[in-house]
Structures are given as structure tokens and as C-alpha cells.
Amino acid sequence: MDGKVFIELLNRDVDESELETISFDDLLKMNIAPGHLFFIPRKAKMPPICLLKGGGYIDKEWIVKYTNKGLRSFFCFVIKDDKKIKDGSALLKKLRISKNEEEAYLARNEFINWVKVFLWDGNDDISFLDLSLICMSVFFDLDEKVVTQIMDKSLVIYDRAQRVSALGVIVALILGYTDFDFLKDVYHACFLLDYGLCDDTIPFKVIEALEVERIKPGTGRDHLVASRASQSEIDLFLNHPKNGFEKVLVTCESKFKYPEVVKLILRHHENGMGTGFPLELLHDDLSEWETIPMFVDHLVSYAETLSKKGDARGFLKDQIDELKANTALDYLPCKRVFSRIEKEMCSNKSFELVTRVTNEDGILNIEPIGTEVEAEEEKAVGE
Ligand SMILES: [Fe+2]
To answer: Which of 137, 244, 263, 318 is close enough to 195 for a disulfide, judged by CB 3.0 to 4.6 Å?
Structure first.
């Protein structure tokens, strides 16, 4: 390729230096597209063709299809930042290898301090693709067929799954959850929140209702009725938490150490006001950790988005500022989550400690084991 080429997806001329050639061998090692992948026809005047957007899952059959056409590489408009992915993953891996609660606490603080610079302070660029790849490299353990099923049925649901799962685990860490297996379960549950929609192509009206429900919980069903959706569309919308929960029990429950975490999928459209679905739960029916998926699900739009460098810079603070300015939180049982995130992110002190997760006789038990003050005192004693 010579000089510049207009790339419609990016709506601008792209210089040769902005594109990298990535071999199929390297792509297969990555699994996830590190940026937007293009084929650029040799014939002049033929525009570049985007074959996979950044963050898309690269399955082997897809690569074989292009290998059979004589191709060996694609052009890539790279989005991911290798250094950030390496740094963030290394910090989370410290959590994985921590031998006791104190080590886990320190590892968690180190990661939160690191991610706060980008996601809250907005002092440097970070992309959702970076965050997704960091969390995926540490927590992801689902079968390829689950991921490809989601991506085949809806790119919007697939993109959201990556973002919501990364945000879910980051919010859980901010809130003080340090048990690696518990965090991994939360990550997978958040990835699979809308798995129950992915048996077939998802009607546009259902995606539209999900966005309406996201913005104002409790209103999606009425929106479907008002837009004259069919009964099967209404059923798909209302049944997807239960359908997803049951599908996970059948296909990948073994991936969860704490089976109770799978229930997050069943409950992710509850709102504590009795107008959620399918269980119409009230605030008292929901523990704090169960509201994490509700909170992060609310943060990520169903509008089709294009991954960009720096698209997560300051995201968490911007979202919380926006939530404070409107009444959306009145419809969500997340006020405690919301205020604790703000407190932790605005504090210069040691982050508030923390919770212990135990699983005795199959019952998930989460208990606070310390406070910010105690953490300071422990530090002082250590010195
Ligand atoms: Fe959902």
C-alpha cells in the first residue's frame, strides 16, 4: 500500500504508517482483534474492506476461509496499547497468585491505583479494548463456542459483554472484593448477562427496548408494547435473564467456583422497585454484590460503538457525574455502590477494606473484614 487511503469506517484518510500488517499466525495467537482489520484490494479505486472491527473474536475457521483465498495477513488499524495491557495484566496476576488476604488487599490496591489514573482521573488514554484484553487475559475461561455464539447473533451484545465484564470486575475490586475466584465468577457472569438473547438473531425492537430499559429501568416492556412488538419479541425480552441463567447452568456452570454468582444473570434486570423482571425484587431482596451487574449494565449503551484509542479515558467519573445529574439512580438499587465508588476514587487514603468470600456447604458468604481506618492502623503497625 502506498501513501494514504480513505477508510470509510474511520471516515478519514489513513496514512500507511497508521496501519500494521498482521500475519494470520499472529492473529490466531491473539484471539481478539487488536484493532480494525482490513483487506485492501490491489486494484486502485477499490476501497479498503473492513473484515473485523477491533475487539472482534478471531476464530480459526474464519482465518482458514481467508487462507483458502490466498491471503496470509491483514492490515490493522491498531487500537490496543501493549504496554498498558502488559502492566494492567501483571497487576491483576499478582492478585491471582496472592497467598493470603493481606497480599490480595495490596495487589488490589495497586491495580486500583493504576486504573484510577485512566478511568477516573482521566490523566492518560486507555481504551475499552485495553481494559477488555487486560481482564480477559486474567479471568476469561469460557469455551470458544459460547463467545462465537454471542458474536454471531449480535455484535452489539458481544461488544457489550466485553465492556460490561471488564467494568464489572473493576467495580467489584473498587468495592473491596479481592477473592480471585469470586472476581472471576463475577467477570464471567457479567460477560454472559445477555447470553439468553443469543439463541437466534435478535430483533431490533428488542435491542431498542434493552436500551430504553438501560436508561430508565422498568420501562422496556411498556416500550415494546407501545411499539407494537410481537408477543415473541416481548417474551424474548422478559425471559432472557431466566433463559441465560438456565443456559449457563447447562453449558458452563463448571466454570464457576461459586454457583450462586450465576444468579447474577437471572437477576440483572431487577431494580429493587418491584418493576424489574423476572422476579420483581425489592431493595431488601438484593445484596450489594448483586447490584454490581445492574450498575455496570446501566453504564454501557446498546448503541453500536466503534472501538477507539482512549475511549475509556475518565469514563467512570464521567458516568458517575452524569448519574448524579439525573434521576436514573432512583430506578436502580445501586446508590450504595455508586457512593462507595466515589468515596474510594476520591480518597487519598488507603482504600477501604474489604470483604472475605467463603463458600461453606455450597452457601456463598460475604463478610466485611476491615475498614479504611483499620487498614491504616495495620500499615502503621507494619512500619
Ligand atoms: Fe439483559
So the answer is: 244
- Compute φ and ψ for 50, nearest 5 degrees: -80, 120
Q: Residue 25 and residue 48: Cα distance in Å, rounded? A: 22
| Average pLDDT of the residues in 256-261 | 91
Q: Could you tell me the domains of the chain?
A: 4-78 (no CATH), 82-347 (1.10.3210)
92, pLDDT greater than 90: yes
Q: Quick one: which of 350, 346, 277, 275 has its CA closest to 316?
A: 346
pLDDT value at residue 328: 60
194 Cα to the center of ligand 1, angstroms: 5
Query: How far away, in angstroms, is 164 Cα from ligand 1 center?
Result: 11
Distance 240 CA to ligand 1 centre (A): 7
- Dump pLDDT digits (tens) for 331-361: 677 777 888 888 888 876 655 556 667 666 6
- Per-residue pLDDT averaged across 90-105, rounded? 91
CA–centroid distance, 262 to ligand 1, in Å, is 14
Cα 193 to ligand 1 centroid, rounded to whole Å = 6
Per 3-state DSSP, the chain is made up of helix, strand and coil in percentages (nearest 5) of 55, 10, 30
CA of 332 to the centre of ligand 1 (A): 14
Question: Which candidate, 372, 367, 374, places its Cα nearest to that of 351?
Answer: 372
**Residue 152: pLDDT over 60:** yes
Q: What percent of the chain has pLDDT over 90?
A: 60
Q: Are 127 and 311 in contact (CB under 8 A)?
A: yes
Identify each DSSP E strand in the chain by its residue range.
4-7, 12-15, 19-23, 35-39, 49-52, 73-78, 355-360, 363-368
Q: What is the whole-number distance in angstroms between the Cα of residue 368 and the centre of ligand 1?
A: 29
The CA distance from 181 to 59, in Å, is 27
Q: Is the pLDDT of residue 70 over 60?
A: yes
Q: Provide the 3-class DSSP secondary structure of residue 112.
A: helix
- Residues contacting 259, CB < 8 A, separation 6+: 253, 362
Q: What pLDDT is recorded for position 351?
A: 54
User: How remote is the CA of residue 258 from the centroid of ligand 1, in Å?
Assistant: 21
Q: Give the DSSP letter of residue 310.
A: T
- All residues with CB under 5 Å from ion ligand 1: 194
